[in-house]
Structure formats: C-alpha cells, structure tokens
C-alpha cells in the first residue's frame, strides 16, 4: 500500500471528553480518506481515552510513557508515513477543509518550514464569564505572527524532511516546545508561513481557574527554555514587559466599554502575579507544571 500524503498526529492525555469530537472532524475532511492517516498518541491517560480512540477504525493509536505532549508528538513522528506532518490537539475541531487548504498552501509555498493555520476560538460547556473569552481572544494563538515563531501545534503542517533533518521537539519542555521548534526551523533557513484559510477551532478557557492553569504551564515552559544564568531576572523582566504590553493593547482595543477594559487589565495583572509566583516556585527547585 502506498504511503499517505499527510500524517495527522494528535497527542492526548485524559482527553475522553474531547477526543471523539476531534476524530469525527477529521473523518469529515474533504480530502479523500486514503490520502491521510490519523495517529493518536496517548500520554498516560487514566480515563478511557484509548478505548474511545480505538472505536475509530481508521485511527492508529500509540502510547508514550514519558510525560509531555512533545514526547508524544515525537513518538507519532517516528511512526508517521506521510510526506507532510500535520499536528492538532485532542480538544480541537479541524474545519472540514483543513487538510485540503493545508495541501494547497504547501503547493504554493514549497520551501515553507511551517504552515501555521488560523486558530478560531469557540465557547463550550459551562461558561462562567465573557471576560475570560475576551481575554483569550485578545491574547491566545497569535498565528498571524508565525514569522516570529508563533506557530502553535494546534494547527501546524510541515514537510516530513524538515523533522528528518532537524530532529523532533524538545521533550524536556512541558510548554513552548512548538515555538522553540519553529525558531529552529526558521534558523535553518525555512520560512514560517501563516495560512488563514487553514482553520482549526479551539475551545476558550472558560474559567479563571483554567486561565491560571494555562498561565502556570506557559510560565514553566518559558522557565525551561531560558538559559540558567540570570534566569529569574530574565523571566521576571519578560513578564513585566509582557504585562505592560497587554495592558496597553486592552486600552487600545475598540469596542470595549471602560468597565470591561478595567476588568481585563485587572485580570492581566492577576495572571502576571500567577506567573511571578510560578517563577519563584521553579527558582526554589520545583518542577514545571504539566497541566
């Protein structure tokens, strides 16, 4: 049997509530089923994620014991047979034309190192406040700035030869490994290209607690990626700069009431405190958070 054109790799950890939706969306792609394969890599789930994934006969399921989504993605890479490698996440909902548009973009950009698609946010489940949705829409997934390295693996496609040449993701990172990989690819001379018509939906973080968990995880990723010499000062400086930049963006965003802007600025400052506390925790020898 000839190899598929595209291998889709999905890492998952305790994703029984969402993996079925993602796999159903891939089943509904406009690209003919024989042109792509779907690989799910379970990363130590304790729920029935694997059982659910196995109900999709077209899906191949592997396991990766080392904790971390980048270790799981690398496991998928070792088994992938496609000329192109596409990544999405278990809680995502790829548009029916996702792979079709990705392939069209690859043909237009034959030298591209990464094709970074648009990530549209959607609301689901118990939604506690539109404030959190506003925050996520302002600051999450700036894929349009792909050329700077903002290429999230929620919506990413590369030629297989890129990984064969440069190696896989840094498995020591719990967060930010996609940006680190994208910068390695750019450093090797391959362009990072934003493809707005290549669309994947991603749920917003619906509660303050989810935003706090996300900020802790992202802060751990930044800590792990920063050189040890002067690390605490460096990450605190970046956090201060990033907080000021975000507050300015909130203030300059049209269509928000003064009250909503004040609430968003307060939330921005609260999350910067979360990041600062996480850096101190890591400075004292703790390990970065996985979730």
From TrEMBL:
Give the UniProt keywords, A-Z.
Glycosyltransferase, Transferase
Q: Which family does it belong to?
A: Belongs to the glycosyltransferase 2 family.
Name by which UniProt lists this protein? Glycosyltransferase, GT2 family
Q: Say yes or no: keyword Transferase present.
A: yes
CDD domains cross-referenced by the UniProt entry: Glyco_tranf_GTA_type
What GO molecular functions are on record for this protein?
glycosyltransferase activity
The Glycosyltransferase 2-like domain, residue ranges: 7-166
Instruction: Provide the species name.
Output: Novosphingobium mathurense
